[in-house]
Amino acid sequence: MLDSGVGGLSVLLALRRLRPDLDVLYLADSSHAPYGERSLSQVAEITHRNVGYLLAEGATVIALACNTASAAALHDLRRTHPAVPFVGMEPAVKPARSLTRSGVIGVLATDATFQGELFASVVGRFAEDVEIVARACSGWSDLVESGSIDGSKAERAVARHLDPVLEHGVDTLVLGCTHYPFLAPLIAKRAGAQTVIVDPAPAVARQIARTARLRGTGVVRFVASKDPAHVESIGQQLTGWPLSVAAMV
Ligand code: DGL
After folding, report:
1. Of all atoms in ligand 1, which is nearest to the CA of residue 66?
2. Can you name the CATH fold of 93-200?
3. What are the DSSP calls for 142-209, one per residue?
4. 2-89+202-247: in CATH 3.40.50.1860
C-alpha cells in the first residue's frame, strides 16, 4: 500500500478489520508529501517509482491508498503492469448520489485530484443530475501529518474549507482524500448531524480483501521515505497500534 504519508492508514485500519491475515508493506512517501500540491505528472512519476519499489519488495497486489496518486497514475500503472492487480481510490460520488436528499453533494479532496480525468469521469458517470460542490482543502493533509486532528487550530482549518461548501445546501460530503477520515469528527461537528459523511475506506478495503486471494501471516511493515521516527509517532497516534517505521532504502 502507498500514500504520501499517514493518510492511507485510514484504509489500512479498515483492511485489518476485514483481513488481519494479510501481509502488508505500507509505504509513507513523506519525502514528497503533500502530493496534492504537486502537478499530476510529478505525482505520476513518483507513484510509478514507488510502485516499482513495492513490486521489488515482493508485493503481489498494489493498493494506492491515496486519491491523488490514483488520479495521477492508476490508469497508466494498469497499462504498464498488466499482470499486477491494482486497487485505487476515486471520489465516492456514486454512493453519495444515492444518499443525498438535497441533490447537492460536497466533494473534499486535493487540488491535484480535481484536476485528474478520474474525477471528471466519476462526475460524468454518476452525478449528471446532482450538483457537485468541489473543494480543494489545502492544508488538511498537513494537519493530519502533524497529528493535529483536534483542537482549535484544526477546527479553524476545517471551518475555512467546509463553511463555503455547506453554504451551497450540501447534505452529503465525500471524503476524497485518505487523510480526511482522521478529521471526520471535526468535519461532522461543523457540518451537523443532518449531513452524511461518506468515507470510502471500508469499501476500498473490501476491494483489496477480495483482490488479495492468498492468505498471509498478518505481518505489517511500515517504511517512510523521510522522517521515519515522525511517521512512526503520528502513525501510532492515528491507529493506536505500537507500529514501528523503518527508513525506505
Ligand atoms: N492522502 C492523499 C490523497 O488521498 C494525498 C494527500 C496529500 O499528500 O496531499 O489524496
Report:
1. 4
2. Rossmann fold (3.40.50)
3. HHHHTT--SSHHHHHHHHHHHHHHHTTT--EEEE-STTGGGGHHHHHHHH-TTSEEE--HHHHHHHHH
4. yes
